[in-house]
Design a protein that fits this description.
By secondary structure, the protein is α/β, with parallel strands linked by helices. The protein folds into two domains: 322 residues, Aldolase class I (TIM Barrel, Alpha-Beta Barrel); 65 residues, DNA polymerase, domain 1. Helices cover 38% and strands 18% of the residues. It is built from 15 helices and 14 strands. The strands form three sheets. Strands 3-4-5-6-9-10-11-12-13-14 form a ten-stranded mixed sheet, sandwiched between helices. Strands 1-2 form a two-stranded parallel ribbon. Strand 12, helix 13 and strand 13 form a beta-alpha-beta unit. The N terminus is likely disordered. The protein binds iron/sulfur cluster (SF4).
Length: 409
């Protein structure tokens, strides 16, 4: 959740970035021809089903493996590119499927070149947002390329600080629509890397591919549980995208039954819980989901999650001036998290033009942090400058979450 656009209108989100960088050339992987738009995306065919379909087309099993590799390892954008497959087989695939179910509609790049945001159009016209974040080497931290992806068009959960929530729920994204966002961003990174290598600025083993994926875009991933998990299976597949589960972070507002379910899944994912307040009264003010799953119930599920998985949980906490940022709030938070294997990610809010919240000053943030640190609660705070969270959606939080995961590794 919560890349969650503060403002999804492409015209206004363009404001802090300027026009899409003309150097970013993104081939449209899905033509809009009338017949093509009627075809199912092959990215929505599961591995088992793909094996079956390929055998039904009279092909031996290894052809399905070649096809899988072309789609997810090589990232082919057309069946024609799949030269390991015989021409008649490629033609048969072309008749049945299209490849990508998403088409870039608006492409934006931050002034410092570190962040791209793309508004994608889905086959039925729905729009979703995806963000690509580039980090250089930073002290002991390696270079990273992180994609922040959406899992739903719209969202039903209605958090008051989030424009996606205010727009309501449109529909679930399919596994192919989720995976296609990462494939698209990987193409951008691969093309940048190829340019660096061609220019002699880097060697092949020095460039960075997509390293991390955070499920923090539009929608609540755990409210689209099965499709989110199917997309994770594809991203994590060793013969495909091969992104380690520890580099995949699912962010949730705290859907208790799904957190419990996730604990039993075979993936060593990171789980991030948006807490934002240490008591029910203040949390319910901004997050209606708290009425359904109050803090005590949520924390119980979180403690069980840690016990079952033996993995820490990341808690996100946006600091809102005089709303949830007093030392008393910090003390309550420390009590709540006492003894729990976790990491708190503090994010001083960037005030929105129309929003009711303002950013606490550095002294207040430091005081809050001090209380947590004294209580032995691991935490990081990110002071982001240069990214306008209003128009940049939750990308500030996605950056911060990514930093926190990295710091805790
Ligand atoms: S869960 Fe809340 S913050 Fe996330 S997209 Fe939905 S309404 Fe927005």
């Amino acid at each position: 959740m919560t890349l969650a656009s503060q403002n999804s209108d492409p015209e206004t989100t363009a404001a802090p970035y300027g026009l899409a960088n003309p150097d970013v050339s993104i081939d449209d992987p899905a033509s809009d021809s009338p017949t093509d738009t009627l075809l199912t995306s092959i990215l929505d065919v599961s591995e088992d089903d793909l094996n079956y379909q390929v055998s039904q087309m009279g092909q031996p099993p290894f052809r399905a493996r070649q096809l899988w590799r072309s789609l997810y390892y090589e990232g082919a954008q057309s069946f024609d590119e799949m030269t390991t497959l015989a021409k008649p087989f490629r033609a048969a695939l072309e008749e049945r499927y299209r490849i990508s179910p998403i088409v870039p509609e608006v492409e934006l790049r931050s002034a410092d070149g570190s962040t791209d945001k793309i508004l994608f159009k889905l086959q039925d016209g729905e729009l979703i947002e995806t963000v690509l974040m580039r980090y250089g080497l930073d002290g002991h931290r390696r270079a990273r390329r992180t994609v922040c992806i959406s899992t739903q068009a719209g969202c039903a959960l209605g958090c008051t600080f989030c424009a996606t929530g205010q727009q309501g729920f449109r529909r679930q994204l399919s596994p192919g629509e989720i995976v296609a966002q990462v494939l698209h961003m990987r193409r951008i990174i691969r093309s940048e890397n190829a340019e660096l290598i061609a220019a002699g600025s880097a060697k092949k083993d020095e460039v960075t591919e997509i390293t991390n994926v955070v499920f923090m875009g539009m929608g609540e991933p755990l409210a689209n549980y099965n499709n989110t998990l199917s997309s994770i299976a594809v991203m994590n597949h060793a013969q495909g995208m091969n992104i380690g589960a520890r580099h995949l972070t699912v962010s949730t507002v705290g859907l208790v039954p799904e957190i419990r379910k996730l604990a039993r899944e075979p993936y060593q994912l990171n789980l991030a819980v948006s807490l934002h307040a240490p008591d029910d009264e203040s949390r319910s003010r901004t997050m209606p989901v708290n009425k359904r799953y109050p803090i005590a119930r949520l924390m119980h599920a979180c403690r069980d999650y840690v016990e079952t998985t033996n993995r820490r949980i990341f808690f996100e906490y946006v600091l809102l001036d005089h709303e949830n940022d007093t030392p008393e709030h910090a003390k309550k938070l420390a009590e709540l998290l006492n003894g729990l294997m976790c990491h708190v990610n503090l994010i001083p809010v960037n005030p929105t033009e129309k929003g009711p919240y303002s950013r606490p000053n550095d002294k207040r943030s430091a005081l809050f942090r001090e209380v947590l640190t004294k209580a032995g609660i691991a935490n990081t705070v990110r002071q982001e400058k240069g990214i306008d969270i209003n128009a940049g959606c939750g990308q500030l939080r996605a950056h911060a979450l990514d930093d926190a995961v990295e710091a805790a590794e």
